[in-house]
Design goal:
The structure holds two protein chains of two kinds. Chain A is of the alpha+beta class. In chain A, about 45% of the residues lie in helices and about 10% in strands. Chain A has a five-stranded mixed sheet, with no helix packed on it. In chain A, strands 4-10-9-6-7 form a five-stranded mixed sheet. In chain B, helix 4 runs antiparallel to helix 5, helix 7 runs antiparallel to helix 8 and helix 14 runs parallel beside helix 16. The chains are: A alpha+beta, B mainly alpha.
């Protein structure tokens, strides 16, 4: 057994030698860049050393015995056994050590759990196989995929040396950007299967679970790029959905937010395109969004992901295919939420006229745009309520139909499409006692927010606000049968204190 | 095995006219505990190589960054099937095989209490494992969602899903029948004077294990049945859109899963506690505290399950409770390690292959125990969870622990079973190759996990390349070394060194267990009249 010990010593020496040889080599947990990650590191080291000490004691005794108390040395076996005192001692001492470990562990755990007083919130949704980020405070929203270079190199038999790819498998097309020294709350959920969001430098990982919301928080001390990846098996490309977090100084972050918002505003290019143009532009969109499941050649994975080549859906009615792509079905995500109208038109046309299919038809971006849900209120803009201009009264039906679209862009991510909510985090609106109760109490709650519910007093126009209140009371399975007019809301909004800018 | 039968005639102490059935049919219809034990052990050894071959595929793909050999989906099937085959096809059946051979001989019983069910539980096991293996050839491939079969991912399995679930049912039925048989045998068929507190620890640990099996296998069967109805009959147990909860599955699974890992380790403790005193030529230091420690570990195994799920977003009270409860396991486990050490202390040790494997077990299992203690600390586990640190941890508690002890048991009892001595030189070579390579294989995985490499990925960032290559090299050496064991087993059955072994085989072993008072090899039927002297040296 001494050889085993020598082997460990050898391994450790080898490790040290390699460490000097290659700079970014790590053997131990990283300390990370937050206070909590440092606490976790200290806890890890404390327990590691306790284990090493116990190990030295136990193995030392054992190896001493193995060396000296052997028959070949003529050692006579003693016949002692059963000693209650000894048994009690070696039960009590470990108990005391464990209590010593439990105290700092409890402290750190409580700290990790405390998401209160966060200064901004980011909703993270896991998809097969990418991450979706929604900044709840400023409306920035995007998907983050494995970067192009890694994706090419990681294909079976690609012939590309991973070592030639910068940050192979740990790089994305659009990283998550956060400001430093701010308490950021993350909300995790998933669209399809379980995922888990892990950036080692932040000191924790959290599972993303479809239908449920998990919370965690961080506050990064210094600017930098921190890399991680999905850590819960989520299907064939589980190893290929990295996470990159870039932490910046506040002014840099603000500039990034502005730039991203402007890009998002551009929206889709709705001009008509030629058949050939649509097919050509569809190819890269297919490669990025569809090829992970349906494979680059459109052959699919039998039993799991249907083939595109020769598919009855693709060769059939174009409107049925558009509907399926936009709204999803079973394992197929709803791409209406992810891609712009022009991209959708291009990729749908591409699938019908490439990958072994030749239907010969196409669809224009405008036709797709008709089918996408309209965004009545831009959450990005934070438009000031129309305080000066008087607002006209509307009929109940008008309010409800406008309210539905306001609901779809402002409320649905938490309270869900049918108003069923996401208990226990997000209450249901269907049958809710608030919605069925006094209308003024509901308006007050929506104007000022409560707990996790943001105040919408400053972000929604009076007309939209009145419409969505009316909608919740007369739609989503509720029928209170009352309305509130925009003029009432306008009065209440003008009475509210001036807005505090979150970003300052 | 014909050698066994031939030898048996030389030891015709008892008046037993009937022997085994002649020819191949003997192995199909046998109800003899020794034959069924042999069947279990041979089957487990075969599955050990099947599961091992899958591990070789995994290590070959991970040898270098980039995808070289298999598609990611097949890689995931390999990790899933490797685990299922090793757990349900190799380790558990191997211990049932040992139980079949040894429990009647250790407690002075003529056979197992329910011999026909014994035969059935073996053949149901074979059916279950073959059904599981057949999923590899189905449309959509074998299950690729990890052996934990978490929904919703597992529901994306292709045609294989119902077959995999049915195979789990069969494996569960087989295990439960085996457990019932063991409990019935131990409670009803002990020789006069063999009180519970005189039973060898292997019998004790198996008794406790059998209760664990009966308690948790139905839970697992229930969980996978809910998967089945979610997929095919429109229920929503684990689907949030229908009011269910995917995390509920994890709670149910780990209520089974945590006792399950002790099902694989408790009989291991029993064998180690049997072998170490014999080669230290000393009684076990604390027999009764070993029994109590085993029972405590079994009890704790039922109340710690959610430490596998620290990152699912449990309420803080739940996380604290499961952290404290898990830390408690260190206490009875420590008692066991201290007792083994104290048993060796001031003994007169010799180091034949069974002892070498047992000592390596104590040391390397303890290392797995240390990492287990580290990950009981919930905040640290937020970093360790689902990384190679975990992979290193549970492989330390399974390979150089359960598998090493199965090797030790093989070397220890093969001379008794066959009447032939194995080749000690090759046995020693097998040991040293195994113990060195298993550490080259698994120790670097601690570094990989701490450095940030998640588990269950077919490809990795380049900073993980060097340790993965070292780990793979260790894996290939370890895998190849096991062929030596296969050679030794076959060679020993065919006559071994040619040296005629005595009844007790190992020096003074007859003081430690009833099996050593029987001839080597034992006749087809043993203890048809109960023994009168109960050995007590092990107590």
């Amino acid at each position: 057994m001494n050889k085993t010990k020598q082997l460990f010593a050898g391994l450790i020496l080898m490790a040290l030698a390699l460490r000097t040889a290659q700079a970014d080599y790590t053997l131990n947990l990283m300390k990370g860049v937050t206070k909590v990650s440092n606490d976790v590191y200290d806890l890890h080291m404390l327990i590691l050393w306790i284990c090493v000490l116990i190990g030295v004691g136990v193995f030392g005794t054992m190896f001493y015995s193995i060396y000296h108390h052997r028959k070949s040395k003529g050692h006579q076996a003693a016949q002692f056994h059963e000693n209650t005192t000894v048994e009690i001692i070696w039960t009590i001492i470990p108990t005391l050590i464990l209590i010593g470990m439990a105290i700092p562990a409890t402290k750190t755990l409580l700290e990790l759990d405390d998401v209160q007083d966060s200064e901004m919130s980011i909703k993270v949704t896991g998809w097969q196989w990418k991450w979706e980020y929604e900044y709840l405070d400023n409306g920035v929203h995007f998907f983050s995929n494995l970067d192009e270079a890694s994706n090419k190199a990681r294909q079976l038999g690609s012939g590309i040396d991973p070592r030639s790819v910068p940050h192979y498998l740990q790089n994305v097309d659009k990283p998550l950007v956060i400001p430093i020294k701010k308490k950021i709350r993350f909300l995790f959920t998933a669209a399809d299967v379980l995922h888990s969001w892990w950036v080692p430098d932040l000191g924790w990982k959290k599972d993303a679970i479809p239908g449920f919301i998990n919370e965690a928080w961080t506050s990064v001390d210094k600017p930098g790029t921190y890399r991680g990846q999905c850590t819960e098996l989520c299907g064939k490309d589980h190893g290929f959905m990295p996470i990159v977090v870039i932490a910046m100084e506040q002014p840099d972050y603000d500039a990034w937010v502005k730039k991203t918002q402007e890009e998002a505003k551009k929206g889709a290019d709705l001009s008509d395109q030629s058949h050939g143009e649509l097919v050509a532009k569809g190819a890269p969109i297919y490669a990025k969004n569809c090829s992970t499941c349906h494979l680059p050649d459109g052959k699919g994975v039998p039993g799991a992901f249907p083939a595109i080549s020769g598919s009855a859906v693709v060769k059939g009615d174009i409107n049925a295919q558009v509907n399926l792509v936009l709204n999803g079905k079973a394992g197929m995500p709803a791409f209406g939420k992810m891609l712009k109208a022009d991209e959708l038109a291009q990729v749908i046309t591409y699938t019908r006229n490439a990958l072994g299919n030749a239907v010969g038809d196409d669809i224009q971006p405008k036709a797709i745009q008709e089918l996408l849900p309209k965004k009545s209120a831009e959450p990005v803009t934070k438009a000031a309520p129309e305080k000066s201009e008087p607002v006209a009264d509307m009929s109940k039906d008008e309010l409800i139909s406008l309210g539905k679209s306001v609901y779809d862009s402002n409320c649905v991510s938490c309270h869900q499409a049918e108003g069923q909510g996401n208990p226990p985090m997000f209450p249901a609106l269907k049958g809710s006692s608030v919605v069925k109760g006094d209308i003024n109490a509901q308006i007050d709650l929506m104007l000022n927010g409560k707990g996790m519910m943001p105040g919408f007093g400053h972000t929604l126009k009076a007309t939209d606000f009145a419409a969505v209140v009316t909608f919740t009371r007369n739609g989503l399975g509720n029928s209170v049968n009352d309305v509130v007019q925009p003029s009432v809301i306008q009065k209440l909004q003008s009475a509210m204190p001036a807005e505090q800018d979150d970003d300052e | 095995m014909s050698a066994v039968v031939a030898e048996h005639d030389d030891h015709h102490h008892d008046d037993h006219a009937h022997g085994p059935e002649k020819g191949f049919l003997r192995w199909i219809i046998t109800t003899n505990h020794k034959d069924i034990g042999t069947l279990y052990l041979v089957f487990a050894l075969a599955m050990f190589f099947v599961g091992g071959a899958m591990a070789m595929v995994i290590r070959a793909e991970l040898f270098e960054p980039g995808m070289q050999f298999v598609e990611p989906h097949f890689f995931n099937s390999m990790t899933t099937m490797h685990a299922l085959v090793m757990v349900f096809g190799a380790v558990m059946p191997a211990f049932v095989g040992l139980a079949n051979w040894m429990i009647p001989m250790m407690i002075g019983a003529p056979d197992m209490a329910l011999p026909r069910m014994n035969n059935m539980s073996f053949w149901v096991l074979v059916a279950g494992v073959l059904l599981l293996a057949s999923t590899l050839f189905m449309e959509g491939g074998a299950p690729a969602s990890g052996w934990t079969l978490y929904p919703p991912l597992v529901l994306q399995t292709g045609k294989a899903l119902p077959f995999a679930i049915f195979s789990v049912h069969l494996l569960g039925i087989s295990s439960i029948m085996g457990a019932i048989n063991i409990i019935a045998t131990i409670f009803n068929m002990r020789a006069p004077g063999m009180t519970l507190m005189k039973m060898p620890l292997f019998v004790w640990t198996w008794l406790i294990t059998a209760f664990l099996l009966i308690a948790v296998m139905p839970v697992f069967a229930g969980a996978v049945t809910m998967l089945l109805t979610d997929k095919f009959f429109g229920t929503s147990f684990f689907d949030a859109a229908g009011g269910g909860d995917p995390v509920l599955y994890q709670h149910i699974f780990w209520f089974f899963g945590h006792p399950e890992v002790y099902i694989m380790i408790l009989p291991t403790f029993g064998v180690a506690s049997t072998i170490i005193p014999v080669f230290a030529r000393k009684p076990l230091f604390g027999y009764s505290s070993m029994v109590y420690a085993t029972a405590s570990i079994a009890f704790l195994s039922f109340i710690v399950w959610a430490h596998h799920m620290f990152t699912v977003g449990m309420p803080i009270a739940g996380e604290l409770y499961f952290m404290y409860a898990t830390m408690l396991i260190a206490i009875p486990t420590g008692v066991k390690v201290f007792n083994w050490t104290a048993t060796m202390w001031k003994g007169a040790m010799t180091f034949e292959a069974p002892m070498l494997f047992s000592i390596a077990f104590v040391v390397l299992f303890t290392m797995g125990g240390f990492t287990g203690l580290m990950m009981s600390i919930a905040p640290s586990d937020f970093q360790y969870h689902d990384t190679y640190f975990i992979v290193a941890h549970f492989h330390y508690t399974l390979v150089p622990a359960s598998i090493f002890i199965l090797m030790a048991a093989g070397y220890y009892w093969l001379p008794k079973w066959t009447g032939h001595m194995y080749n000690e030189k090759i046995g020693q070579l097998h040991f040293w190759l195994s113990v060195v390579s298993v550490n080259i294989l698994f120790f670097p995985q601690h570094f990989l996990g701490l450095a940030g490499m998640p588990r269950r990925i077919p490809d990795y960032a380049v900073q993980f390349a060097d340790w993965n290559m070292i780990s793979s090299i260790g894996g290939f050496i370890f895998g190849a070394s096991q062929l030596l064991f296969l050679y030794i087993v076959i060679d020993t059955i065919r006559g071994g060194t040619g040296e005629k072994v005595t009844d007790e085989v190992w020096e003074d072993a007859h003081k430690h267990g009833l099996e050593w008072t029987l001839p080597s090899p034992p006749p087809y039927h043993t203890f048809t009249t109960p023994p009168t002297v109960i050995p007590t040296e092990h107590i």
